[in-house]
Amino acid sequence: MYAGSHDSYQAFAPLFDKIIEDYHGHKKESKHVSDMDYTKLKCPPFKLSEQKLIKSTRIRVGRNLADYPLGPGLSKEQRLEVEKKVVEAVNKFEGELSGKYYSLGSLKEEERK
Q1: Of 15, 60, 67, 98, which is the most buried if we count CB atoms within 10 A?
Q2: Does residue 36 sit within a domain?
């Protein structure tokens, strides 16, 4: 279920509130607090045998930016603008978070492999 816009959460509150509560366990009056500090993650380390299995990872951007509609409502130009903003952000990652961004639109076969 996707909300086409921020206003959809209010317009269709009886439906969205029930889905959010059932799926995420958050009630309508709950307050979401975001903490983007990755150093606070409590992630146990992988076993060495499991670490060897990891070839790469990816970060999926599944939420909209405040200035843009959600995915189904984006124009091609807006998608390109969003990608540009994401690339600017991920290029600032340092240390363990640094890596290379691959655009699906220009990914070469050898890069995909």
Answers
A1: 15
A2: no
CA dist 84 and 89 (Å) reads 9
> Is position 107 within any domain?
yes
Q: Which residues of 69-106 are buried (b: 16+ CB within 10 A; e: fewer)?
A: eeeeeeeeebeeebeeeeeeeeeeeeeeeeeeeeeeee
**Contact call for residues 89 and 97 (beta carbons, < 8 A):** no
pTM exceeds 0.85: no
Position 47 in a domain: no
Residue 20 burial by CB count (10 A; 0-12/13-18/19+): exposed, middle or buried?
middle
- What is the pLDDT at residue 62? 65
Q: Taking the CA atoms of the chain, what radius of gyration do you get in angstroms? A: 18
Going by pLDDT thresholds of 50, 70 and 90, the confidence category of residue 58 is: confident
Q: What is the pLDDT of residues 11-54, one digit of tens each?
A: 999 999 999 899 988 888 888 787 878 888 888 888 999 988 88
Spatial distance between the Cα atoms of 14 and 31, rounded to a whole number of angstroms: 18
